């Protein structure tokens, strides 16, 4: 019984994690501003990049782009703060 319970729990957790990988398009919202806002959030969440190389000075991006930097097991949010309209390589740490 314990083995079956463990298998079912593992299956449910793995299925939940796999399902949460990509957010679907928001549906059933008639307010255009809210729909556009939710779509923008979805696009940002679905396009977050995880990198093991520090993005500061190495990765080009537009102002506001988000990258998750994996620094030897410590995850740090980095946001592009460059003011150049064509993009730049200046990234600021949101978390320490």
The number of distinct helices, counting runs of at least 4 residues, comes to: 2
- Main beta-sheet annotation: 4 strands, mixed
**Shape, principal axes of CA atoms:** flat
Separation, N- and C-terminal Cα atoms: 45 Å
Describe the structure.
With 96 residues, the protein is α+β, with helices and mostly antiparallel strands. It has one domain (24-93). The chain has two helices and four strands, in the order H-H-E-E-E-E. The chain has a four-stranded mixed sheet, with no helix packed on it. Mean pLDDT is 76; it is low at 15-20.
Give the structure's gist in a few sentences:
By secondary structure, the chain is α+β, with helices and mostly antiparallel strands.
Chain-wise SSE layout:
Layout (H helix, E strand, L loop, with lengths): L1 H18 L12 H15 L2 E3 L14 E6 L2 E7 L10 E3 L3
Parallel strand pairs: 1-2
Antiparallel strand pairs: 2-3, 3-4
Give keywords.
single chain, 96 residues, alpha+beta, four-stranded mixed beta sheet, 2 helices, 34% helix, 20% strand, flat
